[in-house]
């Protein structure tokens, strides 16, 4: 999943967005350039690192390919080993890209969000950066062959390709869930009394589920890959806005963590007396 162009565009919101306190008077969220810019920069840095690791993954050797056995796969995933559909792969990009457009469109159309579009986009960038960092680092560090690798009717070069060795976890599903659940969460926070909330949440749940199904059918990911991707994306879509709420009482903070021999995410819980 190439997120380079996406991040290049949306990072502009850090400088064009409404981050001043005057714009926050009627907003449920609190953001600041001093706090949010380093957070986004840190997570985007982790994305770049993760993409670099993915780029340098190794192909399967023929010996490794021949040693693969469906019976070694986790039982809930075993039935989808060998799946492949080029059409399902292409179709999955329709709701995938549409989910990215939903946040700015909703921010523009909803009157309660419209004057805070910049602020909402900053939160959206953070949400996608967190999700992207979790995905790229995991996909880069974990070797798991996609279901299509078990399809013996496919050319060997496609089955051993390094891109086919990053099934865990489902990045498209995670990104779509993050974007969709973000839209629903922000809509609810700006419109707490709206009767449309159940329908917005239903759509938020359905869109990434559709992407997950298509990725499963395409042979890109196993069921467990999609379930984890869905959970991580949905969690980021809800958690990032919640952590920025003015009345947030979770005492939880999420930051990128990097050291000499490690890279990852840091979740902190602060106890208050």
Structure explained in plain terms:
Residues 119-241 form the Phosphatidic acid phosphatase type 2/haloperoxidase domain. Keywords: Membrane, Signal, Transmembrane, Transmembrane helix. The chain crosses the membrane at residues 92-109, 121-142, 168-187, 199-216. The chain has 273 residues and is mainly α. The chain has a single domain (32-269), classed as Vanadium-containing Chloroperoxidase, domain 1 (Up-down Bundle), CATH 1.20.144. Helix content is 59%, strand content 5%. It contains eleven helices and two strands. The chain has helices spanning 4-10, 13-16, 33-55, 62-67, 86-109, 111-114, 117-141, 156-160, 171-190, 197-218, 223-243, and strands at 252-258, 263-269. Strands 1-2 form a two-stranded antiparallel ribbon. β1 (252-258) and β2 form a beta hairpin. α9 (171-190) packs parallel to α11 (223-243). The radius of gyration is 20 Å and the shape is elongated. The N and C termini lie far apart (44 Å).
Structural class: mainly alpha
Broad CATH class: Mainly Alpha
What's the shape?
elongated
Please give the order of strands in the largest beta sheet.
1-2
Q: How many beta-strand runs?
A: 2
Percent of residues in helices comes to 55-70%
Tell me the span between the first and last alpha carbons: 44 Å
How many discrete domains? 1
Q: Helix and strand succession?
A: HHHHHHHHHHHEE
Strand percentage: 5-15%
Main β-sheet, in a few words? 2 strands, antiparallel
Q: Which segments are poorly predicted (pLDDT under 50) over 5 or more consecutive residues?
A: 18-22
